[in-house]
Amino acid sequence: MKRTLSLPISSRKVLPLFGEQIKLARLRRKLSAAVVAERAGISRSTLWQIEKGNPSVALGAYFLVLFALGLEQDLLSVAQDDVLGRKLQDAKLVVRKRAAKAQKAVAP
After folding, report:
1. Cα–Cα distance between 10 and 2 in angstroms, integer?
2. Which are the contacts of 50, defined by CB distance < 8 A and separation ≥ 6?
3. Per residue in 2-36, pLDDT tens?
4. Residue 43: CA atoms inside 13 Å, Cβ hemisphere, count?
5. Cα–Cα distance between 50 and 103 in angstroms, integer?
6. DSSP string of 77-108?
7. CB within 8 A of 48, min separation 6: which ones?
8. What is the pLDDT of residues 53-76, one digit of tens each?
9. What pTM was estimated for this model as a whole?
């Protein structure tokens, strides 16, 4: 049985937008779907699903397409400027430490 992914409502537009950006990058390079799919080692239908932002397509397939377009370095910018994470870090939230283990007394 195939599992259906359910994205949070707030992020349902992210993958379709990402797919559209991939498609526009392909079109700007004047590359056909067949050529990009072949270079990425995926089927044209998988490329079509990526360009539609289908969440069930493996992240590796998205990466292969970015590589075929010469855009794989763009993934390095993900979470690079982590504003929320930095705010949390700056707030110096207290992280609870585990208590030390009790030492067993050794009988003489």
Report:
1. 24
2. 19, 22, 57, 61, 62, 65
3. 666 688 887 788 999 999 999 999 999 999 999 99
4. 4
5. 57
6. GTTTT-HHHHHHHHTTPPPPPPPPPPPPPPP-
7. 33
8. 999 999 999 999 999 999 999 888
9. 0.72
